[in-house]
Amino acid sequence: MEISARSPVTATLTAAALLFLYAPLGIVVLFSFHETPALSFPFTGFSLRWYREVLASAEFLDSVRNSLIVGSTCALTTLLLGTMAAYGLTRVSPQLQRVASLLFFLPITLPGLFLGLALLVFFARIGVPLSLTTVVIGHLVFVFPYFLLVAYAALERMDPAIEEAAADLGASPWMVFWQVTMPQLWPVLVGATSLAFALSFDEFVITFFVIGPQSTLPMYIWSGLRRTIDPSVNTVSSLLLLVTFLLFTLTFALTVLRRFRLDGV
Amino acid sequence: MGKRSSIVSGNSHASRRAFLKYATAIAIASGIWPSFRTPALAQQKLLQIMTWEGYDFPDAMAAWKTEHGVDVQGIYMGSHDDIQAKILGGGGEGLDLITYGSSYKQLYRALGILQPIDESKIPNLPNLLPFFGSDVQNIWVEPDGTRTGVPCDWGAVGISYDSSVVTEAPTSYDILFDSKYTGKVGMPDDPLGAYGQAARVLGLNSSRLTEADFATVTNWLKDLAKQTKGISASYGDVSSRFISGDIVLSFLGWAAYKSFASDAGKDTIETVWPEKGGGLAFSNAYALPPGADNIEIAYAWINETLRPEIQAAMAKSLVGGVVVNGAAELLDPGLARLYPYDRLNEFFELAPLQEDPPLESNEYVTRERVLTAWQEIKSAG
Amino acid sequence: MATTEDRSEERLPQHTQPSSVLLILPLTLLVVAFFLAPIAIFVAYSFLTAGLFKVLLPFTFEAYRAALGSNLNLALAANSVAIGAMTSVVSVALGLAIAYWLRYRAGQWQLPVLFLMIASMLASYLVRIYAWRTILGANGVINRSLLELGLIDEPLRFLLFNWFSVVLALVHIFLPYVVLVLYAALRPLNPAYLEVAEDLGATAVMRWRRVILPLMAAPVISAFLFVFVLSASDYITPQLIGGTGGQMLGVQIQASFKAIGNWPLGAATSLLMLLGFVVCYLALQAGLRVTGLDRIRWAS
User: Fold this and answer.
1) What is the pTM of this model?
2) Is A253 on the interface with C (CB under 8 A)?
3) In chain B, what residues touch C160 (CB-CB under 8 Å)?
4) In this predicted model, what pLDDT tens digit does every residue of A185-195 receive, in sequence order?
5) What is the C-alpha separation between B344 and B348, in angstroms, rounded?
6) Among B225, B220, B229, B227, residue whose Cα is nearest residue B197
7) How far, in whole angstroms, is CA B207 from its chain's centroid?
8) What's the ipTM?
9) Under an 8 A CB cutoff, do C104 and A24 touch?
């Protein structure tokens, strides 16, 4: 990293963007501790009532569990199928690549409502009972284009010479993928998989139509909109952020520790 | 910073791989990977209700569920239109109960969503208050006597206002057009309600609008939309805007706002039904959808909800009105004052149950026309 | 896997290998079975006569005529395009700067900042929109601060419930996503290129114009397209903070499907929207091909 480290413009923009992204999240967390159901100022006092309420509500916890099941199944399936497809796309002829890219772009061009209703009618016609599985299918269709775009952007730009060199040295395609491509690709894949999870975890338009007798967290959240929405929703988002941050910090700390150990040896 | 980072990046491959490994291990160890819960006991009966959030009454019906070994699965809709879209799309399988609002009766009858209800299975039916037992508007009982729904709650909308800003109770709908309040008026995304109420203000009936009347009502609503900062996605959203101070007046103002706002620390939201224009009442009713497969339990559920004690508990959780005799007496003072139970018939003259425009008609403007025009009103900034 | 074809001038494989097709196959099957097949039903619906929440024979173009003939649809479509374009321009411009900083300037901050970007996606969409209302509303953070400071006497009411707040909320939703896409695309680009450019005396502006932007053209276009499509077809955000001036076409589609029950009209409007997006997609891709910007690869 020998180019000049000074980069005031982009650094300032990044800082501003983080402020922009986290100011509303700060509000979200703040109001999760609000003593009244109001989600607007004045902030009258702190209370843990929404945390108690959420953690005591079987329905709420059920819907959170369903969302976790759907979100993680969807994210991991997307990771598998999406990585395969992105890798394959960089290795096919330009014509096929163009056709496949358009095909994989299409699902985001239709409103979720259209997709949800079309899938509902489709499942009803072919006699598939609605369940969390049909929800996962619906989410897959809507989530994978995001994943693919990210993964493909990284793969497409990679220098094929490195992979070729590895292959010339006798590495099998499998070895090339795991030992040459993956080490460069994984942060991007982790990010893209997190996005897939976040999108699925928050989806409710398609979900409503293709779900069976279960409920997911966003369905629960949005149904509250008819009366008033209260900070219990903030509570769930805050808890989710907290868990994510803890996981990351722990992972990061362990990585740093390990690096120090390696450096010491 | 550049220097330090170059040192770090020297070892970046090993550390990134380590990061990935730890991330996976921690994610698994911390149980983020969900476990599948064992299904409910086989002898436990399952009642599936598609309704508004709260209308499966987790608290009010808790004792009954335990006693009868019934598991209730509430499937919550985001808007009333979700019910027909899901059922007609083929997703109604396994549903045992739904609720429908009074303004959806005609539509649901035409769509074949409402199955006949056997009144003999609901011994508590005579508990209904005279108004809800009589059913002059054929919302719960067809003209031929077939019952299609059992009322569960009711409520009414008029003009809601923030008395800290609008210091005198509105006596007319003209106040909504006062230039003082431009941009501070709320209106929920309820097209049938909006046409129903606007027609009443203009001395018309939204279920029998001629072309000329329709144009008058539509223009009135467009002018009103200009007084708002956009139509709220739901009644709850109007409530949030009152609480946050973004609006001080609302068309189709729901009496329950007072309670929602007061819970949120704002004690100044009131609702009135002015002599001229009055208001509208709504009522949700339980109904059997096609393909209901636990009908006996569904009947037992409906029957239970008609007991005064249960009604009082339901009204409390919904901030709503009760529909059976002997329930109003059991309400908290605040809730008992929400609607005038001592002169209900008079009140329903001032705020009648909302009816919807005809589905098909050569004489009057249809439901589809109203809903289409509403889209224009929503964008009439 | 590497063959002689792979070493052709443009470093693009000219022939498809069976193993690569196998890699694409599972996702293709998923799209065919659970996207194209269900959509085919609704494509057929769009050419049928509307009943109440059902479709009837005969075949007709009535739905398309109605969708195209509605002035409201055209106005809402224009609104959708404007809001979509603004959202994607802002997201992509900001995203590119951030991705650049992350890739080349962040040092040990790279991973934490990237994480912060992505983690912000985990808060529920609805909650975040309400948070914006808490910030921008009449009693919101901004108005209260300005009132406290004595800069205004009356709350500013133009902050919320218009297209501005819609764009703000949409950028908030899509920015992390754009950052990730562009960071992914920059990742394989060795800092050495920029060093060379700098050694040759290139100023920051020149480095961006001559090196980064051409190299990033393809992913930037992709990111732009994605954000454009998703924000232009959104119909939840406008309903919650859009006001009357911020309504978009998706709201109309929702009404056709759910409230009115005119499935052919809803389907036709959606499919016309899809067609519009596909045209944008093809036009932008063709633009990249004509300018040759899609062929740029990181040479070793």
Assistant:
1) 0.85
2) no
3) 229, 246
4) 887 888 889 88
5) 6
6) B220
7) 21
8) 0.84
9) no
